[in-house]
Amino acid sequence: VRVYSPDSLKPHRSSEDSSVLNSGAVENSSATGGSALACSRMAEHERRRFSASELISRLQLSQRKNSFTLKLGKSLSARVASRDRQTSSNLSPSADCKPLPHLPSSSPDKATSRHRGSGGSSHSAPHSPVGPVPPLPTADNNTQQHRRSTGFAIKKSILYQEYSDVAINREIQRQQGEEPGAEEERLRVEGAGEAPSPSNLSPSSSFCSSRGSAFSLWQDIPDVQTSDQLDNFSNEERKLQEAKFELVTSEASYIRSLAIAVDHFMLSQELGECLGTQDRQWLFSKLPEVKDVSERFLQDLEHRLEEDILRFDVCDIVLAHCPALRRVYLPYVTNQAYQEQTYQRLLQENARFPGILARLEEDPICQRLPLASFLILPFQRITRLKMLVENILKRTTPGSRGEDTATKAFNELKRLIKECNSSVQSMKRMEELIHLNKKIHFEGKIFPLISQSRWLVKHGELLEVDTQTMSISGSKFKLPTRPVYLHLFNDCLLLSRRKDTWKFMVFVHAKIGQLKVKDFSQKLQGISGFIFHLQLCEGQQLKHHILLKAHTESGKQRWITAMFPSDPLEDIEQASENYDLSQVQCIKSYQAQEHDELTLEKADILQAKTITSDGWVEGIRLSDGERGWFPKTNVEEITNRSARLRNLRENIRIKCVTQKLEKELF
């Protein structure tokens, strides 16, 4: 077991940390003795246990101090320069206005020492990341220290919602070919007054949140900075360790937010009194179980860090915990639809709920985040966890043992997410069919609408152009139109007229394979809008034909692509053969509003298939091959050709190794 320097970690205990700390570093001692010595060793062991959560907080606080000192120095420098321009008699700043960040590197000033404690290149003993550490709690002040520790963990720590958002923004920069954190890295170097070390030239360099809070990196850990082995790491190896460390730190931040969801909201006595047992169950589902499983997951990750802070691995731990993750995440995500319905119903129907919820959300512990952002965390986390393992896989050496383990972990997480999506979809699809069965009626025919293998693909109203009753107005033809409603399922199309607001009478239907369409790219004379001609056949015979008009280009294109989707295998082959396809990246998450739309998460990379004049894009997500429409405003074109090629190569490599593993298993 690695023994950590007291100056490098020295964690103070908090109520949150007590649930996530694992095994500890044991001090060497020459003393011998009985039970008193054993108790002493146990107490020391308890104090010295490694905590990723505590380490993150200390590194963040250290970097915030450096950032503040740097800004203060720049402000003073600016004032001095302004005063010097006004008075040419004396060009030297006064002693009390001396810029703090530009103190000589040899100065014994405490500010310089604090800079080096974070910057990391000094031959002296490693400094604590946050300067002097408060004394460890004793039996007399244990309760008071416990309260102070808890307050520190809550007020000084970044919640997962913000941590995840900033980490994804960094990934967006990397995938677009930019160098993330270049500005922050320049400030760090300028503030420390040192030349950049090779470890700070990694694209995984320091980055800041929108609130200016710095995030910790593996290379910022004092034991890593002072290790003589660090110089032997290549740039790619550093990137790999940063990717692994991000998985650990993000898990610690995630548990911090889960603790608020459970302890602050779910266990609130006031909130519990205004909720019924069933509402409470639907609203919070298996949240405590999710938290427990995640805490055990973090414990194993922390133990691995403690064993070897320089060359630790995490993917085997992810793989080992996948069964437990599946046990709690699958029911939680499946319950999400009931959770959302319950939340909205309580806001509208429970008179006490909105007021109590508002008071709980105003508590500083929530950092201005609503309950909804905490409830959705597990679904976001399991998706993010897959992305983190994918990033590790991209950086592992091809053919290595690490690649094999990372591939297995990635496949298990991908399978879990697919199960979650399928479970949610199947439940929603059946409910939707039951609902539609009450609204759709057929003229003199029996059509069994409800089927396990059927689901709704798209529905909506278009205008039917009546070519039989055309009229002439001046020199132009005028064709009357009337509304027609389309219900497109995965196996058939229904055309109907509205009987009233909520009922439809079907006048013709056909199987998907018996549809034909002709797109009129040019506007027909006398007809405004976007036109296409649809034929419904029965065998080789024409059953019905209709001229349909949409109000927008995207409206027409979306109906055509929904009726005649491209072959997914052809899309994959095209992406493999053509190495410079148009790519866009999601810069703002999007929740699908219609069946043919694609839900996007920030940093998703997509191949752009169609872009319409009214601002919609049809794209294929590279990571899973899912296809759909989304607003152009939510994505940004990747203009860097080398970045496009790298994204495609990484995607093809991951597909190859996962397919190879699947073949070996089956």
TrEMBL record:
Biased composition (Basic and acidic residues): 173-191
Region (Disordered): 1-48, 77-147, 173-207
InterPro entries, sorted: DBL_dom_sf, DH_dom, Ephexin-like, PH-like_dom_sf, PH_ephexin, SH3-like_dom_sf, SH3_domain
UniProt keyword annotations, A-Z: Guanine-nucleotide releasing factor, SH3 domain
Protein's UniProt keywords contain Chaperone: no
Pfam family, one: SH3_1
Superkingdom of this protein's organism: Eukaryota
Annotated Polar residues bias: 17-33
Residues in the signal sequence: none
Compositionally biased spans, kind Low complexity: 196-207
SUPFAM superfamilies documented for this protein: DBL homology domain (DH-domain), PH domain-like, SH3-domain
One example GO MF annotation: guanyl-nucleotide exchange factor activity
Biological-process GO terms, alphabetical: regulation of actin cytoskeleton organization
Residue ranges occupied by any DH domain in the UniProt entry: 239-423
Occurrences of domain SH3 (ranges): 579-640
PANTHER family: GUANINE NUCLEOTIDE EXCHANGE FACTOR (PTHR12845), RHO GUANINE NUCLEOTIDE EXCHANGE FACTOR 19 (PTHR12845:SF6)
Protein name: Rho guanine nucleotide exchange factor (GEF) 19
